[in-house]
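This follows on from our talk about sequence and fold. Please put the record directly below this note.
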Amino acid sequence: MNLGWWWRLFAGALAGFLFFHGFAATETAPNYSFMYDATSASTLSYYDYIIVGGGTAGCPLAATLSQNATVLLLERGGSPYGNPNITKMASFGAALSDLSQSSPSQRFISEDGVINARARVLGGGSCINAGFYTRASDEYIKQAGWDGRLVKESYQWMEKSVAFEPSLGQWQSAVRDGLLEAGVMPSNGFTYDHIYGTKVGGTIFDQQGNRHTAADLLEYANPSGLTVFLHASVHKILFAIKGKRRPKAHGVVFRDTTGAKHKAYLKQGSKNEIIVSAGALGSPQLLMLSGVGPAQHLKSHDITVVLDQPLVGQGMSDNPMNAVFIPSPLPVEVSLIQVVGITHFGSYIEAASGENFAGGASSSPAVEYMNNLDETTFRGGFILDKVMGPISTGHLELRTRNPNDNPSVTFNYFKDPQDLQRCVQGIQTIEKIIESKAFFRFRYEFLSWPILLNMTANAPLNLLPKHYNPSMPLEVFCKDTVMTIWHYHGGCQVGKVVDLDYKVLGVDALRVIDGSTFNDSPGTNPQATVHGCEDIE
């Protein structure tokens, strides 16, 4: 996997990176002078760069490019500021449970039957995730062909801006020590680095429990060079075809909340481009809606084909997550992901505790189920296993021509047997943690390991039929209880849809810059790499 573009795109924008490192923020969130609702947009406008999607990738990229150019950033959601369901750690999960049209989280259900979510807010996934911050591994960086020095500098800047060392409570400490007893060695203490063993990672929540998101990085933008429109739904990329050797992206059509249509075009200039950063669902979806995708599929939706590109929407992957819930006889702290065990067999073991994780159940049956449980049930937490990679892949297709509707996506969890074996080994490691001396006081003796597995298997974690009982192998448990950890990726992959510079193959003036270009997920959580790397483009 060669993702060298992340570290060399737009050589001229390196000045923006130096600006980030050498100067203070020019404006303070949330009082951005350049941020407006899309209803105030003019019918027609012109910019050097148009970025579709103000998420984990789009925000830092817009801030960087605004140093030397005029930039339009279009975000379909609203502002994260002033919403405690986003900004406060204690409210984690509330946004995921909010199924309203104004929610910062848009629920979707994959064809596999797994309930999932996509961000719909300025700042993207960094506004609704569990906040864990960790770097990609040295091996990943080397295989990607990235400049190691620039990678390190970019990470260091990010860590000064939006990453913090968490305060470990008793539950997380017990999980850390249990991992070491289970043989996930060595103990690496607190570190942002991705290294084998057990570590305490970073968090984007500060000591007061306030979330710091990618939207905060807009503080480093040049206010005179950036325009941000919220509630701006991009319906189509416009291509100039007549007289061109091949199609050239030159504008976008977007609508505001009243349904009014707006058009934004690129100014004349050889380097001016449209950059799609709409996420692993939104980016391949928008390419298809714009006529770049599998010709027969586009024709079935009455979409004019600009470029027959059958690999758009292919290679979709979601890292499987399986968890075991452990009720505790003792009160536990409210904590999100802080400790991780990075194993040699290809799984990451993490944990969350306290009552706030109940809100993370993104299905209506799960919310109803949890609301009916006794309060003492939430004295406990989850220990979870995330499969690295993964190897299994699926595909994405359009359901409708409305960009606000979810596309159809299939991830094919555990289709590859190696993914399934990694899950089994991860669950076996969780058993060792629960049986460890370090974790003993946080579990009831009468709740044996088979009972704990059965409790989890009977919870409404997904929409799949239930098969598991304690006499069955762990492979069945993995398949029956699979969930998402929201690290899905693919659909516009390097070498298939975009080249090594992330330019869309077969057209001009169009790039895709986000997790849709990944073949697998970097580190135990991709957010550091996705928005850290944007700062040096």
In short: The chain has 14 helices and 26 strands. Confidence is low (pLDDT under 50) at residues 1-23, 358-364. The longest strand covers residues 233-240.
